[in-house]
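Quarterly update, task 2.4: zinc ion-bound model.
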Amino acid sequence: MTAANYFSATYTEAREKFRTAAKAAGADLISYVNPNKGPDGGELATDVARIGSRDARRLLIGMSATHGAEGFCGSGIQTGWLGEQQFSALPSDTAILLIHAINPFGFAWVRRVNEDNIDLNRNFIDHTKPYPENAGYRELRDFICPQTWDADSAARSNAAFDDYARRHSTIDLQAAIMNGQYWDKEGVFYGGNAPNWSHRTLLAALSPYAATVTHAAFIDLHTGLGPSGYGEIISNHTGPAPGATRVRKWFGAEVTMIDDGSSTSTAVTGDTQIGVDAALPHTQVTGITLEYGTVPVPAMIESVRADNWLHIHGNLDSELGRRIKKQIRDAFYTDERQWKETVFARAVDVLHRSMTGLSKPDLVAA
Ligand SMILES: [Zn+2]
């Protein structure tokens, strides 16, 4: 069986494959049903599969579809891990928790954001405190999110982006658009003003383990940045944090950091690592983002802007609407056999290095 068969064309198909593989692997399965429906009218849910003891002290967490449209990739990886029995010889006192489609709405509707136009990976922030300001986004807002989507608006936006990149830098432009903002509900990379459904679901899925798990590994599966098919291991910890040291120890020199310019990702605010740490306050968590490349960054950003325009101002049931939905799907998922096989092989490698890291006796000293 080729690894490409683990991947699916729709959320509904992906969910079915994941649940079937989880049951075949003898996993304990819990579903958190989302109040919305998919485009086919089907149920939306986050499915959580656990393999191994409920009381294990070490827990490996693998999560897909933090950004919905990226779930085509992450779901295929999770289903393949189960299908190939990668967990048949677990280290002692270790359990695996696979969180499938934490943002099921975005996965089903092929959106990066959730049902509230919120980017889940910007939502894990203290909503009682003043939000971080993103001056670049504010300056460029009307060019990032134009009222119309045609050649004229594209020309105006691209001119404004080129000008901003000249005055600052290309990476500053990426940061202005992507780092997150907390005031523009109809804009891109919006972090929300309260914990959203997916945020609350992640806490609910992990909280039962808070009293027992002493050490956890967290792999958040993403796509959209970096060279096509390459899986970049981005540390979820920065600076001198012990977690950053552990990530380097586990994965070596290929690890990239968002705070020293080595990663394709700029520093975002309110990511899922904060949620995992909050749900497991007594656990030493070592987290990475496994980020697979698809298309060049400008094309990826344009697809997110186009999709935002479509859902705020456009018509899904139109030629332009269908073109934009294909554009964003292609920006976060390369529907080609070779890409899927490369992606999956890397995911197996990262999984096993994570399990080894989690089982190392020197972990506590890190
Ligand atoms: Zn992502």
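Highlight for this quarter: The CA atoms of residues 42 and 342 lie 31 Å apart.
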